[in-house]
Design goal:
- By secondary structure, the protein is mainly beta.
- The chain folds into three domains: 31 residues; 163 residues, Immunoglobulin-like; 117 residues, Cupredoxins -  blue copper proteins (Immunoglobulin-like, Sandwich).
- 10% of the residues lie in helices and 40% in strands.
- It contains three helices and 25 strands.
- A five-stranded mixed β-sheet has the order 5-4-3-7-11, with no helix packed on it.
- A hairpin with a 5-residue loop joins β15 and β16.
- The radius of gyration is 22 Å and the shape is globular.
Length: 330
């Protein structure tokens, strides 16, 4: 009997069934176990051989007034090399909201040095002016947690003046271990207090792909805030990142394969729709046309671009706030 495949937006598929499988004898079971072990070892060796070393430098800057007397802040990529090869030109030359999307593969390692170019003209004693990178999903030692000493009991782990320590720069080391595939947020955890300034623009994403995962013509990273989508677009060929900002207009070629990465922020519960499209609920073979997503939850899916559409948050209050953007197919 052939069982339906469950779909993953990262290119993996698994059989889904409630049926009971017949027994074919112990020798066949042993053969199956042996073959499975060979496959696992082959995948592990392949992953190790393809592992890359990423050396990254990022900084933080004030970029504009938020309309309420404070400044918005943003991350900016200064440099990025993969096994010594520069790839910095794929990123914006400006500090952007959202920050740079860092694309990795299981097995990779990352060394990220953070700088702080935010002015301290109005600093107050005891208030942290340190910025950090706290990442979800990947592995790291506690000294790379990107939090204040009051949280981690070791250091103020960021760049700038913390409540107890000053660092001109701070270095984070990540291990992209097997099993960490997914789309993960990173954000500040240190500016002004232990909650950080994600709400002022200091956030971005890490995409971890499995070894041998498929490529996509376009990828879109959309952060669902309490009053707007903050997003950006990645070209699948050039890897160029563009269209940063609120409710961006996204572009795709007709019949191209594209992938959406949704990350919820703030405190709202969202109902995301891409009008006129259906996609497989991740990990299942069930087609859906909307997704409910809450704070720091994520939802990643793929579609074939067929026609123009709008992406929208169908939550009533968020619709009133104008949480909507265009998806242009040509």
């Amino acid at each position: 009997m052939q069982y339906p495949l469950s779909h993953s937006p990262y290119g993996k598929y698994s059989r889904a069934s409630n049926a009971t499988h017949p027994s074919y004898g112990s020798w066949l079971n042993q053969l199956a176990v042996a073959l499975a072990l060979i496959c696992v070892m082959s995948l592990l060796l392949t992953g190790k051989s393809n592992a890359a070393t990423h050396i990254i430098e990022m900084t933080t800057k004030e970029i504009q007034d938020d309309g309420f007397g404070s400044k918005l802040m943003a991350y900016q990529m200064k440099s990025h090399t993969i096994d010594g090869t520069p790839v910095t030109d794929r990123y914006s030359t400006e500090a952007t909201i959202p920050g740079p999307t860092i694309v990795l593969t299981e097995g990779d390692t990352v060394e990220l040095t953070l700088f702080n170019e935010i002015t301290n003209d109005h600093s107050v004693n005891g208030i942290s002016k340190q910025v950090s990178v706290h990442v979800h999903g990947v592995h790291y030692e506690l000294v790379s947690d990107g939090t204040l000493k009051v949280i981690n009991k070791i250091h103020d782990e960021g760049a700038g003046h913390g409540p107890e320590e000053y660092h001109a720069t701070y270095v984070y080391k990540w291990t992209i271990a097997p099993g960490t595939a997914g789309t993960w947020p990173y954000h500040d955890h240190n500016f002004e207090n232990h909650n950080g300034s994600e709400n002022k623009g200091l956030f971005g994403a890490v995409i971890v792909n499995p070894v041998g995962s498929p490529s996509f013509d376009k990828e879109y990273v959309l952060y669902l805030g309490d009053d707007a989508f903050w997003g950006m677009e990645i070209d699948g060929t050039s890897k160029q990142q563009s269209k940063h900002g609120a409710n961006p207009s996204l572009e795709a070629k007709k019949n191209s394969d594209v992938r959406f990465h949704l990350i919820a922020m703030g405190t709202d519960i969202h109902t995301f729709m891409l009008n006129g499209y259906q996609w497989f609920d991740p990990g299942t073979n069930i087609l859906i046309n909307k997704a409910a997503i809450g704070p720091l939850e994520k939802h990643v899916f793929t579609v074939k671009a067929k026609h123009n559409s709008h992406y929208v948050d169908k939550d009533f209050s968020n619709q009133l706030m104008g949480m909507k953007g265009t998806f242009n197919v040509h």
